[in-house]
């Protein structure tokens, strides 16, 4: 299944952390282990609609799109049981789930709920790194309540979120960001899971690589072709082998296979660009097929800009061919791109200059950069800034 992947500054940070990794089977333990919590709301946008409309509760719900066109922005757990996922074309989602109910997104409501979450997080720590409106890392090693057990902090946060919003959140607790993210996914929905330093390496070994944050469907498929199906398989490969097969990301994969992640929780992180890309299992050869494939990416980028209240002046198209040659084409305007139709028009114009092609297209991506807060002309701050 194709998958849309958001591109953020995490990738650069991930590569920087990997470069610091020594070529050994294990790294020396830091003098003081960190306590990291990853909080992730459960089916956030769809759950908001089910909360506010009792008739939708227990039913398969898709936020965004329509019966005939568009893409799914978010899906309820009831819809996910039928295979409906975000960024899926609406027509395909309807085929998978004939009883699927489509509702329009209400970003202002979601942003207001996110503000409740921000206030709750800030009661415990100033070290909050948002990933989206409904997801964040917290470093509670030194916290404002002087609590010594991170699990108890996570339990408090989940309880307060439920009380304030009538929604559920899952949380993962561990000694680094990679493992905290795995932990929050492990007990969804409405769950809490802790990965201790003693558990970490063994926990990673048992998981399929497709569950690793930072390993997308195309990379997981390539790993499987190389005989790498689990964390243990990945751990058995040398650093040189992984770097040869996956370039700079190889060092990151070598690291996480050992439960090592040196990235810090960055409270001051500012997103400078937002983008989406998709690797196709079947190469594209025509402009029409590429134009259709670009639509979910445009929807994902624009949805983020709407939810974050940002606009960008530079649109960039990324194309990777079947032989892995990669090109980018960009265009920068004097003013932020508004409305969505302008983003689509400029992206398709860039795409048109790529065709006709002599070799198939295996990946397309689109991004917006030079981001500004909408109507202010100022650079955007973290979406969880207080």
UniProtKB/TrEMBL annotation:
Its EC number is 2.7.7.7. One of its GO terms (biological process) is error-prone translesion synthesis. It is an enzyme of class 2 (transferase). Gene3D superfamilies: 3.30.70.270, 3.40.1170.60, 5' to 3' exonuclease, C-terminal subdomain, DNA polymerase, Y-family, little finger domain. The record marks 45 as: Substrate discrimination. It catalyses: DNA(n) + a 2'-deoxyribonucleoside 5'-triphosphate = DNA(n+1) + diphosphate. Residues 36-216 form the UmuC domain. SUPFAM superfamilies: DNA/RNA polymerases, Lesion bypass DNA polymerase (Y-family), little finger domain. PROSITE patterns: UMUC. One of its GO terms (molecular function) is magnesium ion binding. The active site is at residue 135. GO terms for cellular component: cytosol. Belongs to the DNA polymerase type-Y family. Monomer. PANTHER family: DNA POLYMERASE KAPPA (PTHR11076:SF33), DNA REPAIR POLYMERASE UMUC / TRANSFERASE FAMILY MEMBER (PTHR11076). Poorly processive, error-prone DNA polymerase involved in untargeted mutagenesis. Copies undamaged DNA at stalled replication forks, which arise in vivo from mismatched or misaligned primer ends. These misaligned primers can be extended by PolIV. Exhibits no 3'-5' exonuclease (proofreading) activity. May be involved in translesional synthesis, in conjunction with the beta clamp from PolIII. This is DNA polymerase IV. It comes from Methylocapsa palsarum. The gene is dinB.
């Amino acid at each position: 299944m194709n998958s849309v992947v958001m591109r953020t500054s995490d990738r650069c940070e991930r590569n920087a952390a990997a470069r610091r990794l020594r070529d050994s089977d294990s790294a020396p333990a830091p003098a003081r282990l960190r306590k990291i919590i990853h909080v992730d709301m459960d089916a956030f946008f769809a759950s908001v609609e089910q909360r506010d409309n009792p008739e939708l509760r227990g039913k398969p719900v898709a936020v965004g799109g329509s019966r005939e066109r568009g893409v799914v922005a978010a899906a309820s757990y009831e819809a996910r049981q039928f295979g409906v996922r975000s960024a899926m074309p609406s027509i395909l989602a309807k085929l998978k789930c004939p009883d699927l109910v489509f509702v329009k997104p209400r970003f202002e409501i979601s942003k207001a709920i996110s503000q409740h979450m921000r206030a709750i997080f800030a009661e415990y720590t100033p070290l909050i790194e948002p990933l989206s409106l409904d997801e964040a890392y917290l470093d509670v090693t030194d916290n404002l309540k002087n609590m010594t057990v991170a699990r108890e902090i996570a339990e408090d946060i989940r309880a307060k979120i439920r009380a304030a919003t009538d929604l559920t959140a899952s949380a993962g607790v561990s000694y680094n960001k990679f493992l905290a993210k795995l932990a929050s996914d492990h007990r969804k929905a409405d769950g809490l899971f802790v990965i201790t330093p003693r558990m970490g390496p063994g926990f990673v070994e048992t998981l399929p690589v497709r569950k690793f944050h930072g390993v997308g469907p195309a990379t997981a498929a390539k790993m499987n072709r190389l005989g790498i199906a689990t964390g243990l398989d990945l751990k058995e490969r040398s650093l040189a082998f992984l770097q040869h097969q996956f370039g700079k990301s190889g060092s990151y994969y070598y690291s996480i296979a050992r439960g090592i992640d040196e990235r810090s929780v960055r409270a001051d992180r500012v997103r400078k660009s937002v983008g989406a890309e998709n690797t196709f299992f079947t190469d594209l050869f025509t402009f029409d097929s590429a134009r259709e494939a670009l639509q979910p990416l445009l929807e994902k980028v624009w949805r983020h800009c709407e939810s974050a209240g940002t606009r960008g002046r530079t649109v960039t198209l990324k194309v990777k061919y079947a032989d892995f040659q990669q090109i980018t084409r960009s265009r920068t305007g004097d003013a932020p791109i508004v409305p969505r139709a302008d983003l689509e028009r400029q992206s398709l114009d860039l795409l048109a200059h790529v065709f006709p092609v002599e070799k198939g297209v295996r990946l397309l991506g689109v991004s917006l950069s030079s981001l500004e807060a909408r109507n202010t002309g100022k650079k955007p701050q973290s979406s969880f800034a207080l």
